[in-house]
Design brief:
Elements (H helix, E strand, L loop, with lengths): L1 H11 L12 E5 L5 E4 L1 H6 L20 H14 L1 E10 L5 E13 L4 E14 L4
Antiparallel strand pairs: 1-2, 1-5, 3-4, 4-5
Amino acid sequence: MDNILSSTKDKSRPVLDAQETKGWFEYEPSYDGVIIHMNQVGAKIFGFTSSDDVIGKKVNELYAHPFDHEKTLSMLFRDGQVNEFYTLMKTRNGKLFFIRQSSSLITEGLYKCPLKVKNEFEIVQPALVL
């Protein structure tokens, strides 16, 4: 019984201390969903040691439910931006947490061809895994 309780407590611990997670953190995927930039704190939140370790990963690997990524993209292409959308994310090691994200589509030229997506996110609350 003690083993079950301790493993549950381990999984439900916050991703980072509250001091480290204040504010907005940025990542930038290319049009096809490959991460081309993430700041250091954002990388740490997802369990990577540096922002260079995240470069080249697919952004949908960070979502707990891939459908949430599709839903975000649908809103983004329909409206050109997504404001304060709550999403369940996961770290590299599988720990779950909620973020509030805001995204905007970066376009170029007369025909507004999409180039990349600019995202900012804030940890709202670690998810409990039972």
